[in-house]
Structure formats: structure tokens, C-alpha cells
Give the backbone structure.
Amino acid sequence: MAKSSETENPFVKFVPVISDEGYAYLDAIVTNTRDQVYSFTDKLSPAIIGAAMARLSRRAGDLRMTLIEEFSQTGEEDAEALFDRVITAYGDDSVQQLAGAYFVVEGASNLLTKALEWGRFTSPLEQSTRYIFFDSRDINGRYLYFTPTNLPSEIAQDYNQTMDEIFNLYSSMVRGLAAHLRVKNPEPADRKERTAWLNSTRATACDAIRTVLPAATKSTVGIFASAQAIEYLVMRLLSEDLEEFRTVGTKTLAECRKVIRPFLKRADVPERGGAITAFLSNTRTNLRQFAERNLTSNDKLRTSDGDVMLLDHWPKNEEELLAEMLFAYSDLPQKEIRRQVQKWPQKKVDQLFKLYCGERLNRRHKPGRAFEKAHFEWEILNDYGTFRDLQRHRVVDGEEWQRLTPDYGYHIPALVKEGGYEEEFTKCFELSYELYQRLRSSGFEAEAQYATLLGHKMRYRYIFNARALFHFLELRTGPDGHPGYRRICLKMYEQFAKVYPRIAKAMKFINSREDPELTRLAAERAAQYKLEKLGQQALSSE
């Protein structure tokens, strides 16, 4: 597929030139055979693509020539052995980043979903408790909740009976509240408005009643991740205390190996993945035991002074970011830039902040990386449901949470009281507390978390840089967001604005006004409008 051509170099007689047959081969495996930029088609296996790209650091010339000379005669049966040789020569960590896989976990508890979504370098999506009624049953007539398989039969029976009762109450409340909202906001006469009305009333009811769903509630999670991220996810899951986590870790490895096997060979090798799994498990156990021995705890000390607290921030003054903002646009050392900007008047400082933030026309217009120097640490005590929504943000410097417990109480939404469901709502939390206490007193402390509800308050902490806060706060204060996390993020913004007022002023898309019921309807109307426009475009193109 490659032929030779004479060169002007007297010491080199021939250089390879791609033949017509070679271009025919390339035409099937790359999107462009001659131009500067190209991608790969599905005719080439991930193993061969990864192996070829791994050669980039050690071989000069066009990668397409490398494909022809070293990989064109390699069949699928040889690809894995070839990839093993490349890994041996070049190392596996960087090569693992060259392939990825889509995979789905069905029937994951709401405890497991957070572990699946914890990795920074994965892209997860899950079924939303904000849009879907979670009162359907499986083919055996069971509500969709997870029961730990290691519970004794008597405790498991009590567990299932309690879960069934909670789900019965949930079903009655969520559908009843949706009906209440449809009476309160009558069906529109316009047929086009009806879909938005149905969706918004259902979503508003789900927002209010989802807080009684147990952490055991099953969901579906879809994930795309690199092989490296999948490997680490598997090792983390295998190191966990809960059997559900370990089982899904084993299954994830088995299924992903069916599509990117060469990239995941070492995930469970004793001296590789096995050693990391043991390291994670042992470290976690040792730290928990150390904390129990050395930290004094009682109910008063465990109660927080507030639900959203800015614990720390650094640097203390936003003017310390001036040199960072100018560094890439100057030829001076950072130390000299800092010396000069210290003398600037406030007017010039304000001008630089304004220029650096730019003319932001929407929330996707973010300032540069100079703001990544500034960090802010929050501790939050709020319900597990809103934490689930906030936890999915990838660009977080520190994100940790404590074990779930019913000890911090819960909040009854105003809409629940308005609909007349306060008694049933409270009953769910009473049932949850009784089951939690029985599990814990029986020695199933980790499993007891399944009995907690999404409305139970929990403690967690975040460390954000200022640049990431633009995305996080402007997105999560959006008018169609859940009232719970909108309230948290508005408090975070208020606290941020007190210490970094100039940057806070640039966060133009913080929203603090809309009524959640009205904005849900507006959001659904906007979605229906977009779908209608897409449908019209599709029809016009036929």
C-alpha cells in the first residue's frame, strides 16, 4: 500500500509514498485521506486506533502512513496482541485515555447513582426524579426500590413492607398533587399549550413529593467515559462497603470489556487493580475508625449554625487576581506585574475587571482562567434530593459528603401543605426513621442509608474556583431549577458577592425572582416551541 519515491537527499534513496491501494484503504478508515485534519470511521477498532495514536510520540510523519505500514495487515484477531505490545512499550495510563465506551446501569439505587457519577472524567445522565413518576412496578409487581441481599430474612421482610408503604404514600401524593395543580391552573384552551401544561403540573408535583422517595429508589444511569475513567470507577466500586456497589463494579468491568477489552485488562489484576482497590478500602476504613476514636460527637455539636456557610476563601482580596488577568497579555514576569498593579487606582482596577469579564451575552460566555486561582469553600446542610442535582458538576476542586442519616430533619414544602398532604408526608419520614434505626441497631450501618429519604438533610462540602462558579451558580439559579437548589445557590452567591463584589457583578445571569410554578410552565412552553420549530423544519426539508 506504500511505494517508494526518490529523494533529493543523497544519503536516502527512497521515501514511502501512499499508493492508490493505500488511499483506498485509508478512504475506508479515515474521514479525509489527504487534508490536515481527519477522524476515524467505525471500520477501525478502538484497539488499533489507540495503538496507532500511541506511536505518535516515537514516530515522525503522517499517522495515516503509520496506519498503512504497521496496522493495515492486522486483523481483529491480532489487534489485542498488538495493543499489548504498544502498552508494554509506551505505558498504559495515557493510552487508556484514547478509547471510551458507553454503558448503562439499570436498577441502580439512589445511593449507587452518586458513586457512579462521582468521577470527574465521566459523562453521566440519569432518570430525573423531577420529571418522572416513580410509582411504576416491575414484572413481579414490586415497586422500583433496591433491597440489600445481605439482610436476614426477617429484617428484609420488614424493609420491603416499609418501602411498599412509603411508595404507596408517594404514589397517592404525587398524583393527587398533580391533579390539585391542574384544578388550580385549569387546562388551557389552546391545544398547543396543553402539552406544556401537563408537563409543568406533573414536574411541579414531582418536585414537591420526590422528597419522600427513599435512597433505595432505583434509577437508570447512562455513562460515557474513557477506558481510564472506567477502570478507576470499577476499582472504586469494588472497594466500597455496600454489596450493591461491588456487584455493579464487577458487572461494569465485564460488560465494558466486551467492547474495549484491551484497554481494561489490568483493572482486576491483583498487583494492579486489586492493589488499588485494597488501598482505597483500607484507607477509608482506617480513616473512619480514626475519626470515631479521636473526634467527640454529640447532637449539639453535629447541628450546623446554618444551611449554607462560606467557610473560607483564598486569596482574601479579589485584587490579588490582577496580575493573573494580565500575565498572558504581557511580556513581564509575574512578580513585576504584581509590583506595578499594587499602585493602581480603583478606577483602573475596575476597568481591568470589566475588560477581563468581557461583554457576556449569555451564561456560556465565561471569563478566562485567571479566576481559577481564587477558591471558595462551602459547607451545606440540606436535603439529599437537592444534593443529587448539584453533585453532578465536574469542575469542582473539593466535593465530599457524609453518610446519610435522618438525624438532621427535613422540610415540608409549602405546596404539600397547600394540597393537604402534610399528614401523609410526615408519615413517610416516620416510617423511614423506624426502618433506619432497626437496620443500624442490627449492625447494618451502611445499609441503613437506603432507608433515608431524599428529603432528609445531609452535610456536604464544596470547594469551587471562581471561574467554575460562573457556570455553577448561573445554571443552578435558572428560573426552571428546583426551588431547593435555587435557594442554596442564591445563598452561595450572596456570600460570594460580599467578599468578591467585582466578580459577582459580572455574574449577570443569576436569577432570583421567578415563581417556580410559573417558570416551570414557561420552560415547558419554550421546549414545546423548540420541538414545534424542529418539526416544521423537518417537514419543510422533506
Notes: The two ends are 42 Å apart (CA to CA). The beta strands are 2-6, 14-18, 100-109, 122-126, 218-226, 308-314, 375-383, 398-401, 457-465. The mean pLDDT is 88.
